Amino acid sequence: MLTTLAVENYRSLRELVLPLSGLTVVTGANGSGKSSLYRALRLLADASRNGAVAALAREGGLPSTLWAGPETGTRAGSRAQGTVRRKPVALRLGFAGDEYGYALDLGLPVPGRTMFNLDPEFKREAVWSGPVLRPSALVAERSGPSVRTRIASGAWGTDRFEIRTADSMLSEFADPRACPELLVVRERIRSWRFYDHFRTDAAAPARRPAIGTRTPVLSTDGADLAAALQTIIETGRASDLASLIDAAFPGSTVSVSSQDGVLSLHFHQPGLLRPLSAAELSDGTLRYLLWVAALLTPRPPELLVLNEPETSLHPDLLPPLAALIATAAKETQLVVVSHAVVLTRALSEIAEVTTLELEKENGETKLSGQGLLDRPSWHWPAR
């Protein structure tokens, strides 16, 4: 389980170190940095697939995503003044857990060596055992293009391996023979799952019948909703599915039909002479069914991150959604980004929750009430 998340110089997250638990809820006013925190987690996951550079490019390149204020922040009540940069450009992301931790440090290439001056380079990466980075706990590290790993005896291997500075050592050097710990960390990060805003418009993929295959993991667009619900039923969780539907829509049930391998969803409501198809469902009903399919997954990930799951849901559906999230938290670690007070209150009443309230101070995102002594222990690998 992840216990610490650290971000430095990503958008408004100039210097943020957060504690995580089995179920963490991130709240805050609009513009407080919740979406930036969600994106930072996705960027960490992208690094394990060598997609960090492309992800940053979609956001306008590294300069567009860097903290835009003074290096040391702005004091309360004072005006931001232009300053000469004293430190190298650095966007840093990392996490620590019960078993392993990982950190990356992205910077800009040396001017004049390439025309791709907006592409970030991996300046440093580190994987360590235990919750805190210490020299003795390192199992693999990279400096520029050079990677070294520890061998079975605990000493550093004599071989150094060269990789491109645009590539992560997680994707390019996860060799089980050279460093099995690196492979373990990579696969755990790759198992992280993210769900953002599901489409529920008239042309949404979730409203259309689709060829059915066993679907233990709902796709991010919800196109395989019927297959995912049928997979939940056939893996022995039909009663859980039924109770969660009934809690939100009393007396209602769902079923799935197949015609020549094409699966269709049917929603049965009391008082109606026929079931409703997915195309006929309201946006809120369809969205709730998508969350049920996502959270009752027969294949729980290491980490499940939800971005504003309350969107387009009636307030009456938020307590059942909270029960659904609490059920999923028994099998996987969850981070829920939300601004719905009803949802966060309902979660705190039925589950053990760590609530993190973000606030914006002089353009910088901070954790409300966190002092220097309250922050989890964290150290970045030095350049």
Automatic annotation (TrEMBL):
Query: Which Pfam families did the record assign?
Result: AAA_21
Q: Which UniProt keywords apply?
A: DNA damage, SOS response
Q: Which SUPFAM superfamilies match?
A: P-loop containing nucleoside triphosphate hydrolases
ATPase AAA-type core domain span: 23-342
InterPro entries attached to this UniProt entry:
ATPase_AAA_core (IPR003959), P-loop_NTPase (IPR027417), RecF-like (IPR014555)
Q: What is this protein called?
A: AAA family ATPase
Its source organism is Amycolatopsis melonis
Which lineage ranks, top first, belong to the organism behind this chain? Bacteria, Bacillati, Actinomycetota, Actinomycetes, Pseudonocardiales
